[in-house]
Amino acid sequence: MFGKISEGFRNAINKIKLKDDEKSLKKALDELKKNLLKADVHFKTVKELIKKVEVETKRKGIGKANFIMELEDALTQILKAPGNFGFVFSPKPPTVVMITGLQGSGKTTTTAKLAFYLKTFKKKKVLMVAADLQRLAAVEQLKQLAEANGLDIYYDEFAKDAVEVVKKGVEFAKSKYYDVVLIDTAGRLAIDEELMSELVKMKKEVNPDEIFYVADSLTGKDAINTAKTFDEKLDITGVILTKYDGDSKGGVALSIAHQAHKPLRFLGTGEKIADLESFMPERIVSRLLGAGDIEGLVEKTAAIMDEKEAKKISKKIKKGEFNYEDFIKQLEQIKKLGSMKNLLSMIPGMGGMLKQLGEIDLENSDEIKKIKSMVNSMTPKERTNPKLLKESASRRRRIASGAGLSVQEVNRINKQFQNAAKMAKKFAGKKIPNMNELMNMTKGLNFPK
Description:
Layout: H1 3-13, H2 22-38, H3 43-60, H4 64-79, E1 95-100, H5 107-121, E2 126-130, H6 138-149, E3 152-154, H7 162-175, E4 180-184, H8 193-206, E5 210-216, H9 221-234, E6 238-242, H10 251-260, E7 264-268, E8 276-278, H11 281-288, H12 294-304, H13 307-319, H14 324-335, H15 340-344, H16 354-357, H17 366-376, H18 380-384, H19 387-391, H20 393-403, H21 407-427, H22 435-441
């Protein structure tokens, strides 16, 4: 998601050597300026960043190491704004949050994503309040998102007054001991007095702990201007930037906190419910400069991986008992982590390679779809004992017919699954094999891409 900007930084860094002169520094800064403006970073932000890097690099000595260090420091300062980062819980629950923004910015989806994030990664009891009574499908959309993802929702199908819905929703949350209340509010195609009046009334009624403004990153610099207007009326406490996966330039993320003077709290990084990421300036800068974000990756995976379940799976692998049911369970866990490309960008050195990898979608790959269809056509006994398929041609024919696959495809998938299980058993508790050992072990296997 930071492709264009990261590429620009690499180009600028390559213009300067280990020890260099002012002429090379000027070339590096010109390259940096050109790439930042191309990436839609606000010109005032670019001007300030370039000035800081130039002054401090000259002061400490012109060279690649100092240039990178000062670029990192300047970026971190640009991304920081007064206020909190991530999600901050009220000492006295529930933490009440109003989600505001223009129509089409992704407020309703973001409300559900944030609820999922807090439930999955923070282990909190979250209630969504459907208070967008202006857009006909808004309440229904939030209901569907709640049902599909196991989230709690408060709504009133016959309500006419959004402020009353919010009041009752917060009262309900208090009575049921919820940790967080997320209020999905109405938007407009443009800012108008009626919208702002309703939002101001809501704020007075429930006195929220936070007011998040949801900005569509694809609107570029307009996102900054509308954030400022919402702040003037409501005193917003943070910004959530949506549709960031569709913004190949990405400059608005570097500009919005600096220009609106409000912290960027979350990034929407894809269409799936799990594609919402807490915005931490130091970690984002690390990824921008190609150093990854191992801390963020560990936090994400630790939050969804149950320790007892992990030990259970580990024992099964060591015994060679890993089965189709275990595979599907692990796949469901991985889905909770969100975009695979986003996860890979957290690994040091992977940032520059992501363009070559193309789209990575484990859930919707043809091979995974075939395996899922095959598993759904199995009996519980067959799912837990893949060897039964090897021993019975009639079972394989029945499964192929139910899954809409050929018998040959079922044979291939089952063979690959058992070979992979054997390989995992060999690896379990042992050193990682060298390349020659790995080539010998995998010889003749036809793994999906």
